[in-house]
Target: Heavy metal transport/detoxification protein
Amino acid sequence: MKKLLFTSLILSTLLSNVAFATQTIKANVNGMVCAFCAQGIEKKMRALSQTKDVYVNLKQRVVAVELKEGQTLSNDKVKDLIKDAGYEVTSIEITEHPIAHIKAGYEAAEKEAK
Model:
């Protein structure tokens, strides 16, 4: 009986973590050429009520917006905000990786390239 209870507790914990997985919108952006460009996009994205965190990698031309738990944001809204700031979105994807994971991946790649 204890094993069954323990197993169901673990299972419910795992399922609840899946249900509330982080959602991050990652966009590749053309036209960002300086820190001021990146700062402008970051400021627009942070102003959204759905935003938990933002990461802009100028060198890789990537903008990642991590959403707060339970929040949604359409790809079109992200594209429109970036376009209104004067830049072009070349591709967009949704991932379940948090900003910290994405940032670490780019930093590792840049370190390897040196």
